[in-house]
Design a protein that fits this description.
single chain, alpha+beta, DNA Primase, Chain A, DNA primase DNAg catalytic core, N-terminal domain, 5 domains, 5-stranded antiparallel β-sheet, 4-stranded antiparallel β-sheet, 25 helices
């Protein structure tokens, strides 16, 4: 059963003008009847993001993101469909009437949040219990040097070395076994089907949302057990890829700059030292969702990861994710300590503040890694360092910045700037050639549906799948054709479709009693599937021939193509190369 009525969704779209909503995230400029701006979902210098006022939709010609105001909020705020509906309803002052399914879902979420609150209180009380929490409190105060004020501020706790203390406590409060398991506070024993405490003999770090709810926990073990850190898995109230530790505190002071750390203790140590703009991911590498989340709160990010090899590799990945959403990223490098927590303990907060002022760009970070890798006092080491430096320089898109960096490298490696520039430009030309070849092969593969995550069946029969998508594109522009098809006795059934994706969309279309509206499909689609539908509509709108006769012809192509064998990707690329060579001669 749909969670929201068609009337509710239409009212929410009507009351949330798409240009007004998007202008809160993107600086839009009028371009005829439409508006354009820099896409908030990928890094770009020339605007490819367009808002179409006529159709109340948006589309990015760069990354392919598209849809209506609901799908925009899903992406921009990293929300599920129901959360996006509630977000827009609140913005427009609309009260969303929940059906019984909705009420039960909301009740379940509220129960988990209340249960997490009780669990946090239990863990916190255990930490200050002389018998139960002695080791945990000693670890936090003596080994990690935290004050009681800091411990209370972050609500830290301790999970006793017991299989049932927490579960028994929560069951006495009326929570059922399945609720404990759903919230990831308990596991269920396969032997006796009874719950057991998930967190045991661990210092506990509550994860608090920006709205103040306790949504998850992290636990650091007190002995040599593995894993060292244990984190709540995804639950109905928590997605680790969409949350950051301490963002509930950092959001008040990170408008200009946010410090991204690896772990809980680094963040807590920084906050205790007055650097209240620090956050950390939750037991996972930084994701695109984390990066988009940061764009809501800050202009730039300082990557403050451990100084070991794993930390430096993670920093490289962070540069990629942060750059993709247009955030300025720099890296903090320290010597004499492996992480911010240890550095502040050894050298003090003033020295750490100096490090924050001396952060390095992505190029400087990578070039430093090259210099530490090779002995540039030897000929062999200098040659290898030059080769890697040329590779790094060739990836810098800005010519002026590249010239500055060429000067730095030339001086450091004792070569002339002119000769280095020549080698870099030669590498760029070589890369361009390779990239063109790869792009050509990618486009051939994409045209045949290889690597298509939204419609993975496309590659099995590209001709049929292409006809399907063109049919859907026309129907998205002219939903009234669904009725005309019946009146003209044009037979098109869901089972005529070759791909599961197109069959699902067409089935939803014909199931509507009222006139079909793409926005009403949002609840059953991912944002990537909404993107695809917007792309299909955009493609057909660029063509002048979208008459019902065209639709009829495409239906014929679909039916004729069903079951026919297509070339493999390797065969297709080989035939294309053969044709190119023939044309050249």
């Amino acid at each position: 059963m749909p969670r929201f009525s068609d009337e509710t969704i239409r009212e929410i779209r009507f009351r949330n003008n798409i240009e007004d909503v998007i202008s809160q995230y993107v600086q839009l400029k009028r371009a005829g009847s439409n508006s354009v701006g820099l896409c908030p979902f990928h890094s770009e210098k020339s605007p490819s993001f367009t808002v179409f006022s006529k159709s109340d939709s948006f589309y990015c010609f760069g990354c392919g993101a598209g849809g209506d105001v609901i799908s925009f909020i899903r992406r921009a705020e990293a929300l599920d469909y129901p959360e996006a509906i509630e977000f827009l309803a609140k913005r427009a002052g609309i009260t969303v009437v929940q059906n019984e399914y909705d009420k039960e879902t909301a009740k379940r979420r509220e129960r988990i949040l209340q249960m997490n609150k009780e669990a946090a209180r239990f863990f916190h009380n255990c930490l200050f219990d002389e018998k139960l929490g002695k080791e945990g409190l000693r670890y936090l105060t003596e080994e990690r040097g935290l004050s009681l004020t800091t411990i209370r501020y972050f609500g830290l706790g301790f999970a006793p070395d017991s299989f049932n203390m927490l579960t028994d406590h929560l069951k006495r409060l009326g929570y059922a076994d399945y609720e404990l398991s759903t919230a990831f506070l308990a596991g269920i024993s396969p032997k006796n089907n009874r719950p057991y405490d998930y967190f045991r003999n661990r210092v506990i770090f509550p994860i608090i949302s920006t709205s103040g709810d306790i949504i998850a926990f992290g636990g650091r073990v007190m002995d040599d057990s593995k894993p060292k850190y244990l984190n709540t898995s995804d639950t109905p109230v928590f997605k680790k890829s969409r949350n950051l530790f301490a963002l509930n505190y950092a959001k008040k002071s990170c408008e200009e700059q946010l410090v991204l750390c690896e772990g809980y203790m680094d963040v807590i140590a920084l906050h205790a030292a007055g650097f209240t703009n620090a956050v950390a991911t939750l037991g996972t590498a930084i994701t695109s969702e984390h990066a988009r989340l940061m764009t809501r709160y800050t202009k730039s990010v300082v990557i403050s990861y451990d100084s070991d090899e794993a930390g430096q590799n993670a920093a490289n990945k962070a540069f990629i994710q942060l750059g993709a959403v247009g955030l300025e990223a720099r890296v903090l490098q320290m010597s004499g300590a492996k992480d911010p927590d240890e550095y502040i303990k050894k050298f003090g907060k003033d020295r750490f503040a100096e490090l924050l002022k001396a952060t390095k760009s992505e190029f400087e970070f990578k070039f430093d890694a090259v210099l530490s890798k090779y002995d540039i006092n030897t000929t062999d080491g200098r040659v290898k360092a030059l080769d890697e430096a040329i590779r790094i320089l060739s990836s810098v898109s800005s010519r002026s910045l590249r010239d500055v960096y060429i000067g730095i490298v030339a001086t450091r490696l004792s070569v002339t700037a002119d000769s280095l520039k020549f080698d870099v430009e030669r590498r760029i030309k070589k890369n361009d050639g390779l990239n063109k070849r790869k792009e050509s092969e990618r486009m051939i593969a994409a045209s045949q549906g290889y690597g298509d995550r939204v419609n993975p069946d496309f590659a099995k029969n590209p001709k049929a799948a292409s006809a399907e998508e063109q049919i859907l594109g026309i129907l998205l522009i002219h939903p009234e054709y669904l009725r005309e098809m019946k009146n003209r006795n044009i037979v098109l059934l869901p089972e005529d479709f070759f791909t599961e994706f197109s069959r699902k969309i067409f089935t939803s279309m014909v199931s509507f009693e009222s006139e079909f509206d793409i926005s009403l499909l949002g609840e059953s689609l991912t944002v990537e599937e909404v993107d695809r539908l917007q792309k299909l509509r955009m493609h057909r709108e660029e063509l002048s021939d979208n008459k019902i006769e065209t639709l009829t012809a495409l239906i014929g192509v679909l039916k004729d193509s069903a079951g026919k064998k297509e070339l493999t990707l390797e065969e297709l690329i080989a035939s294309k190369r053969k044709k190119i060579k023939k044309d050249e001669t």
